[in-house]
């Protein structure tokens, strides 16, 4: 059986990258800050709750603590919630001509603006579902809300994004024509 330190090391190696991605989404592309907060979350887990949680519970605990740290960071800097550049980079197609690159960049900017305009609870739930592929139950555990609230938040986030996308494409189509 693995020692506690080995188990903690394995947990860190398994969840640190995804925790950083999640935090970067919440922090609007500030990768260095996301990494710092992810590390601080692991330190806090090791200091306060490591011996009392199973690995599965520790995962949810980490996401919850990291999210709270990100919210505290927003309050400190008094900024609006933003998504990170990695989402934009992941959406970037390769090998297009300059016109297609420009159109793609415009779409990415639009998507980021739409995501940024979502309420934090909807954005966090949607990111955990789409990016981290957590179940509704797992998202509820991370965000400390009911599974039905998770479903409602994700539904509303998707509906809002869909509606805004329709409006934007109509406006863009009307101005192009």
Descriptive tags:
177 residues, Butyryl-CoA Dehydrogenase, subunit A, domain 3
Q: If you had to describe this structure to a student in words, what would you say it looks like?
A:
There is one protein chain. This protein is elongated. It is built from eight helices and no strands. The chain has a single domain, classed as PhyR, sigma-like (SL) domain (Butyryl-CoA Dehydrogenase, subunit A, domain 3), CATH 1.20.140.160. It has 177 residues and is mostly helical. The chain starts with a helix and ends with a helix. α6 (120-130) packs across α8. It has helices at residues 4-26, 31-49, 55-77, 85-91, 98-117, 120-130, 136-143, 147-176.
Brief digest:
This protein has a single domain (4-176), classed as PhyR, sigma-like (SL) domain (Butyryl-CoA Dehydrogenase, subunit A, domain 3, Up-down Bundle).
Amount of helix = over 70%
Q: In angstroms, what is the radius of gyration? A: 18 Å
Shape: elongated
N- to C-terminal distance: 68 Å
The total count of strands amounts to: 0
Assess the beta-strand content as a share of residues. under 5%
The CATH architecture: Up-down Bundle
Total discrete domains = 1
Major beta sheet summary: none
Q: How do the helices and strands follow one another from N- to C-terminus?
A: HHHHHHHH
Overall pLDDT level: 81
Label the structural class. mainly alpha
Please name the CATH topology: Butyryl-CoA Dehydrogenase, subunit A, domain 3
Low-confidence stretches: 78-84
The CATH class assignment is Mainly Alpha
Total number of helices: 8
The CATH H-level superfamily is PhyR, sigma-like (SL) domain
